[in-house]
């Protein structure tokens, strides 16, 4: 957008835009009018008022109209409150999709892959036989900040309040938001989106957010009711709008993701964790990835079609599925001519993978009874543990890996495959040569 004499049309964050508006008497008075118009009125009533209409028209030319917020900024909630105070007046407020109030993501997954290799020394594409989710937990434990915040949410989400109250869902969500907001994505993404070849690994991935507290509940609410609840909270509403903006399936792009940006979609997905709309893996399947919030479309009445469409943006979303698989495989689309190196998926190695050092322990010393510790102990030492409620939260990895999954039988040597194809092209020539010889 161009600039007016005041320089207002330069895009700024909403906190700064509010300051600019407050310094201009015309903008300031119109903004106060709009807020009064929105208080306790539906949109149609508001638009029928000429004074409210005039306020909207003036504010569309103010810095507030173009303002956006930065994820994790110091005054994020204040910024979002200002954003919605304007945009709920400009839109229906109950649209199926709402525009994201956040600045667009310009980084790519390739940046995270590079950082992950620098920080942890582990490349998820180099060893197809290892438990990538266990490796991700160990990499997190090598970083003090990641280990501290991960231990914190595991402890909070596993703490029983009373005989009837399994945990404090509110405190669990807050601890999870702190983890995903404050820990670099090269660690959090590896915990959330690690690739799995066996069910034990997939169950560890599903348990990443301690779903018994942060995700599951006694009953599943209707998805549209859950969406309406989310939209009453500025933070939750913003994260949901951001998810729809960056993960809405768009078939005009190669990856089905808007702008072919996997990073933006995965970041928006992670941003939903710790709210009522928290998504998670629905099972420990290794052959398919199905993501869903904890809700269903039961009892939708005449809104069932809209409910199913909303739910399918999670459960049947090719953009989200492709983004998760791309990260787990260590690949990313590269559409920029400045970076000519194409992503390469390495074939599985036949030799045994080197054992992880003995001194890398997945246990959190502060919280010995954490879920992740229990899962790791079962894998590393076998199921010879005292029975506990934590142990029921994860499968025995040694037991589960004895059941060979279908996708474990499909390893293909790419070089060998290429040789077979070449041989197939040569064989039809042999009878012709024999006829010529005769």
Report on the architecture of this protein.
Glycans are attached at residues 329, 386. Keywords: Cell membrane, Disulfide bond, Glycoprotein, GPI-anchor, Lipoprotein, Membrane, Receptor, Signal. InterPro entries: GDNF/GAS1 (IPR016017), GDNF_alpha (IPR037193), GDNF_rcpt (IPR003438), GDNF_rcpt_a2 (IPR003504), Glial_neurotroph_fac_rcpt_a1/2 (IPR017372). Disulfide bonds join 21-27, 133-194, 140-146, 157-172, 167-213, 196-201, 223-295, 230-236, 247-265, 257-319, 297-307. The protein has helices at 14-22, 25-38, 43-47, 50-59, 63-66, 76-90, 109-120, 132-141, 144-158, 169-182, 185-192, 199-206, 211-214, 223-230, 234-247, 262-272, 304-315, 318-329, 371-381, 397-400, 414-426, 429-437, and strands at 279-281, 291-293. The protein contains 22 helices and 2 strands. Among the domains are: 14-87, no CATH class; 109-115 and 135-329, GDNF binding domain (Annexin V, domain 1, Orthogonal Bundle), CATH 1.10.220. It is mainly α and 438 residues long. Strands 1-2 form a two-stranded antiparallel ribbon. It is globular. The longest helix has 15 residues, at 76-90. Helix 2 packs across helix 6, helix 9 packs antiparallel against helix 10 and helix 15 (234-247) runs antiparallel to helix 16.
């Amino acid at each position: 957008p161009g600039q007016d004499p005041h320089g207002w049309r330069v895009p700024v964050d909403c906190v700064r835009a509010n300051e600019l508006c407050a310094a201009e008497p015309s903008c300031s008075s119109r903004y106060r009018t709009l807020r009064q118009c929105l208080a306790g009125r539906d949109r149609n009533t508001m638009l029928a008022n000429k004074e409210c209409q005039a306020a909207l028209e003036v504010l569309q030319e103010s810095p507030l109209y173009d303002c956006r917020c930065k994820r994790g900024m110091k005054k994020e909630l204040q910024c979002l409150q200002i954003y919605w105070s304007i945009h709920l007046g400009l839109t229906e407020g109950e649209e199926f999709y709402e525009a994201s109030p956040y600045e667009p993501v310009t980084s790519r997954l390739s940046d995270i892959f590079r950082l992950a290799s620098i920080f942890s020394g582990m490349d998820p594409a180099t060893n197809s036989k290892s438990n990538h989710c266990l490796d991700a937990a160990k990499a997190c434990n090598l970083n003090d900040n990641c280990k501290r915040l991960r231990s914190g949410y595991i402890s909070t989400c596993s703490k029983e309040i009373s005989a009837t109250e399994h945990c404090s869902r509110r405190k669990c969500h807050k601890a999870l938001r702190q983890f995903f907001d404050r820990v670099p994505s090269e660690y959090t993404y590896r915990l959330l989106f690690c690739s799995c070849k066996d069910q034990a690994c997939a169950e560890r991935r599903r348990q990443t957010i301690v779903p018994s507290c942060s995700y599951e509940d006694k009953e599943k609410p209707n998805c549209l009711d859950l969406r309406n609840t989310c939209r009453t909270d500025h933070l939750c509403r913003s994260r949901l709008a951001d998810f729809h903006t960056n993960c809405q399936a768009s078939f005009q792009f190669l990856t089905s993701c808007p702008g072919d940006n996997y990073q933006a979609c995965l970041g928006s997905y992670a941003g939903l964790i710790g709210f009522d709309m928290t998504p998670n893996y629905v099972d420990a399947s290794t052959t398919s990835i199905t993501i869903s919030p904890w809700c269903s479309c039961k009892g939708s009445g005449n809104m069932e079609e809209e409910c199913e469409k909303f739910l399918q943006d999670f459960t049947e979303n090719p953009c989200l599925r492709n983004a998760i698989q791309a990260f787990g495989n260590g690949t990313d689309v590269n559409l920029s001519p400045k970076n000519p190196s194409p992503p390469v998926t390495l074939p599985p190695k036949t030799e045994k993978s080197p054992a992880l050092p003995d001194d890398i322990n997945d246990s959190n010393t502060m919280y010995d009874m954490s879920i992740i510790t229990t899962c790791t102990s079962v894998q590393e030492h076998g199921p010879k543990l005292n029975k506990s409620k934590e142990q029921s939260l994860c499968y025995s990895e040694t037991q589960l890996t004895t059941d060979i999954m279908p996708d474990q039988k499909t390893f293909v040597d790419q070089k060998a495959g290429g040789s077979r194809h070449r041989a197939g092209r040569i064989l039809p020539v042999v009878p012709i040569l024999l006829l010529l010889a005769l």
